[in-house]
Amino acid sequence: MNITKVLDAKGLACPMPIVKTKKAMNELESGQVLEILTTDKGAKNDLTAWAKSGGHEVLNFEEENGVLKFWIKKG
Known about the structure:
Layout: E1 5-9, H1 16-26, E2 33-38, H2 43-53, E3 57-64, E4 67-73
Parallel strand pairs: 1-2
Antiparallel strand pairs: 2-4, 3-4
């Protein structure tokens, strides 16, 4: 997987991970991948729903040491 950009949103509470993700996605071309790191537990549902509504694809998700990692491909 080629990651185009990494967004570190650790320590930010809702809705900031979504706000920052949206801003970062606007800087990408279609098909590029954004990696998002967050500690906001609500982000799992929020980012998944946001990606789907925006026509983006969640490629992968994992949790490691309290950090949620998402890989979202721009639609």
